[in-house]
Each structure stands twice: as C-alpha cells, then as structure tokens.
Design brief:
The complex is a heterodimer of chains A (218) and B (248). Chain A is mainly alpha-helical and 218 residues long. Chain A has nine helices and no strands. The radius of gyration of chain A is 20 Å and the shape is globular. The two termini of chain A are 27 Å apart. In chain B, helix 6 runs parallel beside helix 10. Chain B has 13 helices and no strands. Classes of the chains: A mainly alpha (218), B mainly alpha (248). The interface between A and B is large, with 84 and 82 residues.
Amino acid sequence: MSDSPRRGVGHQIVERRPLARQRGNEDPDLALVSRWQAGDGAAFGVLVRRHERRVFRLLFRMLGSREEAEDAAQETFLNLHRSGHRFRGDAQFSTFVYRVAANAALNRRRTLGRSRARAQALSQVQQAGAGLPAAPPDPERAVAAAEDRARVQEALLQVAPRLRLPLVLYDIEGLAYPEIARLLEIPEGTVKSRIHRARELLREALGDRRPEEGRGVS
Amino acid sequence: MSHGEVRALLGDYMDGTLALARRALVDAHLDECAACSGHLRALRAAVDALRRLDDPEPPSGLADRVLERVAAGEAEPGRLARWLSARTRRPWALVPAVGAAAAAVLAVFLAGPGSEPRLDAARLAAQAEDAQRAVAEEIRRHGGPVGSGALPADAEPPAAAADAPREAFRLLQQHRERAEEERRIWLEALAATRSADELRRLAATVRALERPGASPLAQEIERLAEAATPPAVRAATPPGGKTAPGQP
C-alpha cells in the first residue's frame, strides 16, 4: 500500500471560492435594482461598486491584461445600464451581471497572442515586485510565487475562450453548474464537458508540472 | 476499466461527484496504474493552481469612470425605448410593455411565484421601514454621482432588503411598465386570486422595494385588501394558501 501510485494524490483539495450569497431564494440586489429601474441613478452606482470586483476578476482571467480587463469592465457596466430594464428577477442579479461581462469578454476581437501574453504577465510580475516592501521576508519566494501565477494565467489563455469561460466561472468564480448553464444558455451536461476539456487543456499547457511529494498546501 | 474511461471520469472523481460504485472502480484502477495516477496528480495540480490565483484589485476609480460616462449620456437605452417612455410618461430607464393582452397579464399573474418563503406580515411591515432606511443609508454612503470616497469591495447588503422576495420585485416592475388600463385589469386579477392577508403581505414587501415615501402600488394593493373579496372566491381559497390555476 505504501508503494501505491496513488500516494501523494490525496492531499487537501483547494476549495472553490466560497459563495457569500445564495441563501435560498433571496437576492441581495433586488431592492437596489428595483430602485434603479424606477429611475434612481444613485442605486445604479451602488450596484456598480458591489459588482466591480467580480466583473474585473472574471475579465482579467479571461483576457489576461489589466488594461483590456478595465476596458471590458467599463463596457460591461455601460451595457448593464443600457439593458437593466431587461432584468426580470428570474435569476440572481449577479448572474445577469456575469452574463453581460461574459459577453464583453467573448466579444473582444483582439485576443492576445502567446508571446504578448507572456510579456504582459511578466511586466505585471515586475510591477508587483516594485510594490513589495523594502525587505520582504522571503523575496525569492515572493517573486517565484508571482512568476508561478503569471505562468498559470498564460496557460489559461491557451485554452480556447469558449472553454476558458465555464472553467473560470466554475473554478475561480465558484458558480455552480446550474447557474453557469443558465448564464451561458447551454445545458448543464455541456457545461460539465466543457469544464472537463478546459481542465485537460490547462493541464497540458502547464506541462509536466508535478507537486513535490510532501509539500503542503501553501 | 480502460485508461480512457478512467481519465474521462477523473474530473468528477476529483470533485467528489462520482457515484460510489464508479469511484471504487477508479480507485482500483489508480492503485495499479502509475500513468493514470500521474495524470490525476497533474490535473489536480492544474485546478489547484487555478484556484490559488490571487484576487486582482480592480483599478481604483473604475466605478467613478463608469458613472461619469453614464452621466455623460453614453449608456442610454435605445431610441425605441425612449420613444415609448415619452408616450407613456415613464422614466426613460424603463421600457413599458406595448400591447400586452389582458389575458397575457392574467396568465403571467395567475401562474404564481413558485417557491416563495412564507411571509410574516408583522415582521415584514417592520422590516419594510428598516429596509428603506438601510438602503437609503447605503446609497448616501456609497452612491454619490462621482467619487464619494473609498468603498468596501463587497458591501454587505442590508439584511431586511435581502429578504425581499422575487415576486414583489416582478410585480413592481410590471406595475411600472403597464399602461393605466392594463394596470387596472391586472390589479383586479390580483384581488380576485389572493386573500386579504396575502395582499397585505405583498403590499408590505412592495414598500420594502420602493423608494422611501408613498408607494402607489402598495397603497392600491392595501385598498384591495380592505375591500371585501367575493365570498365564492374566499370560500374556494384555503386559509393561508392560494388556488393554483386548474386545481380544485
């Protein structure tokens, strides 16, 4: 048993993002949306601030560049403003927001090529390094971690956008299959198979990377 | 199980969503197969790496820039919506329904809200005021037109507002969009199919969603609650429940 090839596989799984919302039927945004639909512009402002983090995160992971992500985020909220009357309360408002953001991501014609993505990612690592305190406890480790993350982002960009999107929604945004299915207007089975394929492509793009035996979850 | 079959199941295996029998088969295969175990390790490492990615900080001022552009008129609904708005004197943010048949209105209405939590009228009435105050406070603190200071990334919603059910939201939306005549028909349908208690609860919830001040819709619903409902309908409605279409 100690020589089983499965040894080392049973380490702690990294949990998906915990959902702060979704307590049954409630949607914390309903009151604000209702006011906004009645013409209260200030309510829209609150909604933007409530959702800007998740919108930016989704777009950054989908597009790989802060600049592109900010452009797309602004576009997302402007589109949201234009089509807010279409929200009927049939789904969570955040699902609606994700849908508009997803469309903004997929509509970007300019998807970064591989070398540009790497250059972007590396420059962001350098910028991140510039923001570190003068004497970080373990500078080499910090830089290595940042480069690791850049590598993962670059690998993610090698997955086709149509597959990347459900993967990001599931494993990064923490949405459940039914919500992703509703958001993308595809069957749940399709969501599952796209995520499966995307994960395999990500694994391939990351190469022969193996966790070291005995290294705990950092 | 073949290698191909096992690998197809590794995603579910990893997520813990594989049925027990299948899981046992995959376990047994992995015990003997270094290649597939290695594949699983690499797959798990990839997913873990993805989940460990940091939360990118949105650029400061993103919201401000959006709101500036909105204020500059960049994101108004299409021309058709504005023309319709002008005709019915609704705020331009809304698109009123055009030509919705009374039957359609009734059908939407009688279909019922589905799984709605049972509401406690007294609690709701108390919460309605709290909800209005809480949301007004949040708007005051966070929702100024341009740059009103630092904001928590995910402001906790006021608890009372979080309870406002979907149905009241939809009713309010429909109410705002319908022309005078359609509203009247629609409200009559409401009166015919709900008990007085339910109407009062609905009114309280609608108040929780509206801006502070008078809520014409809530008032109309309360008036309907006061008026006697037809004895036949009242007898047909079980206490605390409502009749669904087609059911005795």
